[in-house]
Design goal:
Helix content is 9%, strand content 40%. With 126 residues, the chain is mainly β. It has one domain: Immunoglobulins (Immunoglobulin-like, Sandwich), CATH 2.60.40.10. A four-stranded antiparallel sheet has the order 4-3-6-7, with no helix packed on it. It has a three-stranded antiparallel sheet with strand order 1-2-5, with no helix packed on it. Strand 6 (99-106) and strand 7 form a beta hairpin.
């Protein structure tokens, strides 16, 4: 009989990179991420492509009126990112909207693979 896997008790125990998004001002968000060497190796093994050649994107969802369902009706925009930079500034946001980010890989043929979802960012302007 197999033993049940241990439950994760903190965000630090989660697999995958650590991703955080916060308001920079009323029209832009700042996203930051931290990826450990072990996680980088796992990503390379998953895709069988060197990390430097993978097309990483930061997908930002507008979750003001609808949570993410991955049914083709979600409102999002993709930002191409340099994974080694560890943070980027995302322009064109509305301060009255609620957002959630997701770090992922978008292949040339359009397939998207999620690696990690961020915190929810509430509106900064009411």
């Amino acid at each position: 009989m197999k033993a049940k896997p241990k439950r994760r008790t903190s965000n630090q125990d989660l697999d995958g990179p650590n991703l955080r998004i916060n308001w920079s001002d009323t029209q832009s968000l700042v996203a930051s991420w931290d990826i450990k060497n072990q996680q980088m190796e796992a990503i390379e093994q998953r895709f069988a492509i060197p990390l430097s050649e993978l097309p990483f994107v930061l997908r930002v969802y507008d979750v003001t009126e609808r949570m993410i369902k991955n049914d083709g009706l979600d409102h999002y925009v993709d930002f191409d990112i340099n994974l080694q930079a560890s943070e980027c500034l995302l322009y064109g946001m509305e301060g009255t909207r609620e957002y959630c980010g997701e770090l992922g890989v978008r292949m040339i043929d359009g397939r998207y693979y999620s690696l990690k979802r961020s915190n929810l960012v509430p509106p900064c302007v009411s």
